[in-house]
Amino acid sequence: MPELPEVEALRDFLTDNLVGHEIVRVLPVAVSVLKTYDPPVTALEGHEVTAVRRHGKFLDVGTAGGPHLVTHLARGGWLQWKDRLPDGVPRPGKGPLALRVALENGAGFDLTEAGTQKRLAVHVVRDPREVPGVARLGPDPLADDFDEERFAGLLAGERRQIKGALRDQGLIAGVGNAYSDEILHAARMSPFKLTASLTPEEVAGLYAALRGTLTEAVERSRGVAAGRLKAEKRSGLRVHGRTGEPCPVCGDTVREVSFSDSSLQYCPTCQTGGRPLADRRLSRLLK
C-alpha cells in the first residue's frame, strides 16, 4: 500500500505535471471506485488544475472553480502517468484500469487496481473534508508543528500496542504497515510494546525514528517518476517484506508475525532482546 512518502512523491510529480493544465475528460472504467455522485465526475471537465495536495494517504487534485478529485489508492491501487494517452474510450473489463483523467495537451493519468480486493476509492467533492477518511485524519507527522511534545500527548491517551497506534490514521496520518515496521526497527522497539509502558526516553527515541524514517523515505522518493516509486520504496526498506533476510544493522534473521490479512516483520536482536515473537493467533504476545 502506498504510504505517506510515496503519496508525497506522487503529489510532487503531479504538481509538476498537472497544475496549469485543463481536465478535458474523466472516464470511470470501474464505476465501483466512485464513492460520491454529487457533483458528478464530469464536473471536473473544463476546469484547470490549480494545486495537488496530500492528506495522509489521500491525494487531492484541486481545480479552479470546480470540485476536488480526492483519491485513496488503498492496497492494490496505483497512478500511472502517460505523456500521451491512448486514443479512444477504454472499455470496462477485467483489467486493472479503474479511471482515466485526460488533459488538454493529450497527457493524463490512469488509476489502476491490482488484485481481487477492490478498495481503490475516488471522491469528487466540493471540499476535501467532505471525504470521511480525510475528516477523521490525525496530524501529519512531518508537519512543522508536529513536535515531540505533541507526539507524546497523542500517545499519552492510548492503551494499546505501539504498532497499532502508529497505523491508526485517526491518531497520526499517513503511516501504514510497512513504515510502522521500519520506524519500530529504527527505534529498537517491539511492535507489541504497550503505549502505556513507554518511558519519556522511549517516546523521544520513537519520535526521532518516526520523523527520521519518513523524512529519509520522502527524500529518497523525491524526483522519482511515478512508475518507479514502488520499486524505490521496496529498495529502501530494512525489515518490512524481508522475512528470512539478514538484518542490515546486526545480521540477525528478520522474522515475521502473520495476521489474517497482513503481516509484520522485525529483528529479534534489535527489537525484542533476541526473543522471537509468538504467533498472535496462537500464543500470548511479547510485551
Strand adjacency order, main sheet? 1-6-7-5
The succession of helices and strands, N to C, reads HEEEEEEEEHHHHHHEEH
> Which segments are poorly predicted (pLDDT under 50) over 5 or more consecutive residues?
281-287
Instruction: Name the shape in a single word.
Output: elongated
Helix content: 25-40%
Average per-residue pLDDT, rounded, comes to 93
What is the radius of gyration computed over CA atoms, rounded to a whole number of angstroms? 20 Å
- Give the number of DSSP strands: 10
Strand content: 15-25%
Structural class: alpha+beta
What's this, in brief?
The chain has 287 residues and is α+β, with helices and mostly antiparallel strands.
Architecture blueprint of SSEs:
Elements: H1 4-18, E1 23-28, E2 49-55, E3 58-63, E4 68-72, E5 77-82, E6 97-103, E7 108-113, E8 121-125, H2 132-135, H3 148-156, H4 162-167, H5 177-186, H6 200-221, H7 229-236, E9 255-258, E10 263-266, H8 268-271
Helix pairs in contact: 1-6, 5-6
3D architecture notes:
The chain is α+β, with helices and mostly antiparallel strands. Helix 1 packs parallel to helix 6. The strands form three sheets. Strands 1-6-7-5 form a four-stranded antiparallel beta sheet, with no helix packed on it. It is elongated and about 60 Å long. 27% of the residues lie in helices and 20% in strands. The two termini are 27 Å apart. The protein is built from eight helices and ten strands.
